[in-house]
Amino acid sequence: MMKSLKDGINTLCAKSVLKQSRYCAALDDLPDMLFGYWRDTAKREFPGIPCDAVFFTRAAVGLMNFFDCVATSQKPCGLPSKAADSVWHAWLACDPAGLERFCRKHFRRQIPHIKIEDMGVAKDDSLANCLVAARRLEGINAASAALPALFKLDARLKMPGGYAYRSCNDKVGFASMDRKGRAGPRLSYPEALLPASLLAVGLVSSSEYEAYIASLWENRSTTSTGAESTDGADCSDSGDGGGCSCGGGCGGD
Fold it and tell me: Alpha-carbon distance 83 to 46, whole Å?
C-alpha cells in the first residue's frame, strides 16, 4: 500500500517537474521505454542511485539542458552531472538511433557521447565551455561566478559519486561526492573556470567581465567583509587540482 502511494506521489511530482521545465516539449518526446530501462540498469553502473520517477525526470531535464549547451556553444562541452549522464548512458544503450533523431529534432544536430579525455581539449576547458553556455541560457552574466542549474544538479539530487559544484567569491569549485551523495567540505578550483580565464580565452566579452567586476565592487562597498561564499562552503583549495575526474566524466562535441 505504502509503496503504491509513494509511487503515485513520485509520478505526480515528476509530472510537475515536466510542466515547469523550459524543455517540456522535448521531455514529452522521450521514448516510453527509457524510464523503465534506466530504472533497471542505472543502479548497476551508478551504485546507490535513486531510481524513482522524480530523480529520473530531474536528471532528464539536466540532460536536455546539457544538449542545449552543446548546441548553442558550438564548442566541446564537458558534462558536470553524473545524474544527467546516467540518463544519457541508458538511452545510448537502449535506443542510440532514436537518441540521434531526438537530438536532431530538438537541438538541431547530433550530439555524440564522448569520454572527456577524448574530446580534444583540456578537461577544464570543456567544462568552461559548458559553464558559459549554461549561464547564457539562463540569462546569467557569463563572466560571473554564479552557478547555473546544470552545475547544481548532482548536489541537488545527492547523486552518489557525483560532483558538488559551489561558488566562493569569484571562484567556481567542486567536490567529489561519496556513495551516499555527500560532498566533502573542501573544493578544487579549476583555473579555467575563473572569470579572468574565461575572458582570456574569449569565452566572455570584455563588457561582461567589466560588468561583473563592477558588481563585485558594489557588493564590497555594502559589506564589511567583502564578497562571501554563496553557500557557506570552505573556500580553501584542496590542492588536488581536481584529480583525474575534473568535475565531469563525459561530454558532447
Answer: 9
63 contacts 233 by C-beta, under 8 angstroms: no
Q: What is the DSSP string of 165-217?
A: EEEETTEEEEEEB-TTS-B-SEEB--GGGSHHHHHHTTSS-HHHHHHHHHHHH
CA pair distance 55, 53, nearest whole angstrom: 6
pLDDT digits (tens, 9 = 90+) for 21-73: 788 889 989 999 999 999 999 999 999 999 999 999 999 999 999 999 999 99
Q: What is the pTM of this model?
A: 0.84
Sign of the torsion angle spanned by Cα atoms 16, 113, 180, 138 = negative
pLDDT tens track for 144-193: 989 999 999 999 999 999 999 999 888 999 999 999 999 988 889 999 99
DSSP track, 79-148: E--HHHHHHHHHHHHH-HHHHHHHHHHHHSS---EEEGGGSSS-HHHHHHHHHHHHHHHTT--TTS-PPP
Residue 38 to residues 44, 59, 112, 127, 188: CA-CA distances in angstroms?
10, 11, 19, 25, 31
